Amino acid sequence: MSLNQVASESRLLGWEELEGASLAGAREDGAVLTIGIFDGLHRGHQRILAAAERLAASAGLHRIHIGFDPHPDLLLRGVAPLRLLDPIELEMRFASAGVEQWCDLPFDAEMRDTEWEPFLARLVAATGARSIVLSPESALGRGREGRLERIRSWGATRGIQVHPVAEARAEGAPIRSTAIRAAIAAGELSGAARALGRPHAITAQRTPGSLDLQVEGEGFALPPAGEYEIRIGVAAHRSGRLPLTGRVARARFDPAERTLSLDRTATERLPKGVTRLRAALLRRLAGRSGR
């Protein structure tokens, strides 16, 4: 199981589960479908999910999201991009946005070489999709040939509505996960927060008796070394709910050691009996030099 594959009642993995009994109700009643790698759930993703939820609520349809794991870039470019959200928090945010069922399909050589039309036909049959909500830059199938206008024409001949959602913008530019990762790596947290719609957060494990928290997760987007103002509290968990809150504190982050160091007062104020914590990065106070 990969880092992004977090088991839950709403999470399906692969075609076998997607085409199984879990979605029998959706196939009978109909569904609104969204498709894509929404790993950071930035404001552009949120806009698509909100439009899909409005459609589903107005028509009494189920809400299903289709993602891919591993990330397509791992096969296409040889490296997967850094993740922007803790997997459990990602799942919580999907649920909060109205997603009832979420399936990650394997992005392997077979998926890469599948034409967009049979891919969509199989999705529709598996999910009972009556509407598909996409961004204008959506591109599906081999060679990314399944563009919006083609998909709309395909849907029109099958009684499936295809709804484009205008892309979200920040500071005059379209919001892209790549730009968010670059902003985080440069310590430009305010720009990242504007695009995400929330401060970027990291998760860490607390060791009793230590002032240092061990930052979790290889392959996650991390800021540069420095001192930060953070909001620290309990990390996302199965029985939790949004919003995720905490206390404001100062901490020093060391990416080489993957540690988040708090002073003793801040450490003593952490939730008792909790080992897994979430630190929302509010702003960078100083770099490695302390300036």
Describe the fold and architecture.
The chain is of the alpha/beta class. It folds into two domains: 157 residues, Rossmann fold; 111 residues, Beta Barrel (Elongation Factor Tu (Ef-tu), domain 3). Helix content is 31%, strand content 27%. The chain has eleven helices and 16 strands. The strands form four sheets. Strands 1-4-3-2-5-8 form a six-stranded parallel beta sheet, sandwiched between helices. Strands 11-12-15-14-13-16 form a six-stranded antiparallel beta barrel. A hairpin with a 2-residue loop joins strand 9 and strand 10. Helix 9 packs antiparallel against helix 10. The longest helix has 17 residues. The termini are far apart. The N terminus is likely disordered.
Per-chain topology:
Layout: E1 11-13, H1 14-18, H2 24-29, E2 31-35, H3 43-59, E3 62-68, H4 72-76, H5 87-96, E4 101-105, H6 109-112, H7 116-127, E5 129-134, E6 139-140, E7 146-147, H8 148-156, E8 161-164, E9 169-170, E10 173-174, H9 177-185, H10 189-196, E11 201-206, E12 212-215, E13 226-234, E14 247-254, E15 259-262, H11 264-268, E16 276-286
Parallel strand pairs: 1-4, 2-3, 2-5, 3-4, 5-8
Antiparallel strand pairs: 6-7, 9-10, 11-12, 11-16, 12-15, 13-14, 13-16, 14-15
Helix pairs in contact: 9-10
